[in-house]
Amino acid sequence: MEHARAPSSDVSVAPSTTTRSSSLFDEAIWFLQPDHHDELQFELDNGVPVVKGGTAGALVEYLTRHDKLDTAFNQVFLLTFPSFMTSAQLFAMLMERFYIQHPDGLTQAEYQIWLSHKKKPTQLRVINVLKRWLEYTWVEPDDDEARALLKKIYEFALDSIPAIKTPGSNGLINVIERRLQGDRNVRGHQRVSLQSVASPPPVLPKKMKKIKFLDLNPTELARQLTLLELRLYDKIRLEECLNKAWQKRAGLEPAPRIRAMIHHSNQLANWVGNLILEQSDLKKRVRLIKHFIDILEACYDMRNYSTSIAVVSGLGTAPIHRLARTWSQVSERSMATFQRIQRLVNSTRNFIEYRETMRAASPPCIPFLGVFLMDLTFIEDGNPDHTPAGLINMDKRAKSAAVIQELQNYQSSEYVFQPVPDLQDYLISSTQAAEDMASKHDRSLELEPRTRVEMSGGGAPYVSTGTHMTGILVASMAMGD
């Protein structure tokens, strides 16, 4: 594209018909005003104008405004733009902004003002947006199409930026080169530093060759489960959180990392139930329940709410919940612990107990993915993509971005526990092999036949968590096969 040339000094200034911008300097000079300001919809939030909608062109212009930096909007835009435009379209529009053309009818003096106060600041904004996009929110797969786009951006960064002496080019070029090399973790997470915290020594049984579940220390089991859970949670990527990708069927499985974590949570709950039902002896079943509640308490204390809820769900599935004779032998202390943590999955008032627990939690912490997905589902289904005026609904995108940002914030968690490979292998193989608890009702009846209370429609005096978990899974974590 050609660079803008200065107009001759004898060209007269045309009167302005464009909406005035908020900058005092720009209000006095018509040719510094935004071109698409009237294509944006604003609402006041505590006296501050917030973009609620706009055309694609107006949104990209606002993203790269020469006279205004709206950090909150830029973050929302870069997190959610794949829901309304492609990366190739965004790059093309950014190039239009970078090579912005001066309006007709400028004098030589006016052109110099436009050049220094609009074009150059706009170009700097474009460079910063490109760098932040590629560094933080690049969602393209590592395929030929994405690489072709990266090469276009790279050529632009090498050729066009130095020619006009725009700062920031070196950082952008470095990010693009790393992307071209296949580095998907260009920036990585800013982890919470725990270097000053001593790593606790693992608590292991004397015999590790033949692992027996009840011989394993509950706290150490919780540590290893937490490390496994964090490994899965840490891999979730931005694009998997948009447009309910985890629920879609496709030739290439969408949202593989979210689906992997959902599968792990479900298999963990199945494993809990399977181990209990494998025991014909009532006392051993009671020991197993107590052991799981001890693991549950340790996970909860570690703020690993993902594993906590999976264990609660396993203990609350119908085949386990109905074992009234077994539950009646569980100690009052264990039952009190279980019921206290069980409240995390109570759906009353939109999971208020869980949300309050999360608000009070400090990192490191592993949230329950299901609530994030439930919120994203409700936002996606409950808000139109466009406003009544046909503008892109940025209010919807801001709500989604807030959930995604919270999810990403907890990916900065870091635990100081030492991995124990043999123990992790045992947990992975055991959970993967667990059978679906939906097929275990007959086994439950073998262990404890129906009581008169059950046959009359009653049940054990314990609140099942299964229905609450099912509500979350069905509403938000359901996966298309």
TrEMBL record:
Residues 217-450 form the Ras-GEF domain. GO terms for molecular function: guanyl-nucleotide exchange factor activity. CDD domains: RasGEF, REM. One of its GO terms (cellular component) is plasma membrane. Keywords: Guanine-nucleotide releasing factor. Residues 47-180 form the N-terminal Ras-GEF domain. It comes from the Eukaryota. GO terms for biological process: Ras protein signal transduction. The keyword Endoplasmic reticulum does not apply. This is Ras-GEF domain-containing protein.
